[in-house]
């Protein structure tokens, strides 16, 4: 039987005569606890960075990390009793709903990089307005993820079908927004390379290029995560991805942890701080230097 806790699965309750499948396997408790600890440690370090670098735009990122931690707590608890709705809703809601919070900070960070390098004049739209646009769309994605996470537990077939449609719509929107974001990053990066010698950051010896490379990296990880999750829900619960837990950790947990680690290694707040220290310095032009030498 599907509800035998000692069996291999699938697991889930029977609601109104309808079998609701929460998991096609028993969730791995050890992996859940491990990622709870990893995300928790990442959150603590990022909180210290917010105060150290005054990077308040990382607050959504931190909230996303907290959500991920509690999401994997839900999976750890689901290992003990995989037919209970509470842990299922918790892990489904937070693991699906937290990445848009990460994305909000990623979008805002590009705006900080553009402003720090004084490239606003090349932006097609104001960096702050662009970040606002991305964040608003991301909030919409977050709302769709929340509704989708709760609906399957109701046992209503129509609710389950609508939940699948919502999650696929939200993930498709995320893929579209990430693509536009990467194009915006590429445009800014191209302008920065063209004017590299005139940038105050270059004159001050600040390695600003790595911030663009890091942005491409985290955006690629977000894209990969959304793509695989989209394929997962498109295929359905009987197909390979959803019936093998390794895909959740390999293409969701690991990319999100990697994004947290990359931002600790190359934090945009450092660029803002370094540029701020040299911003008021008047850089002599080459002609004046030659006159001074004479």
Automatic annotation (TrEMBL):
Location(s) in or outside the cell: Membrane
Entry keywords, A to Z: Membrane, Transmembrane, Transmembrane helix
GO cellular component: membrane
Pfam families linked: RTA1
Membrane-topology annotation of the record: Multi-pass membrane protein
InterPro entries assigned to the protein according to its UniProt record, in alphabetical order: RTA1
Signal peptide stretch: none
Ranges annotated as spanning the membrane: 31-51, 58-76, 88-110, 131-151, 171-190, 211-231, 246-266
Protein name: RTA1 like protein-domain-containing protein
Organism of derivation: Colletotrichum phormii
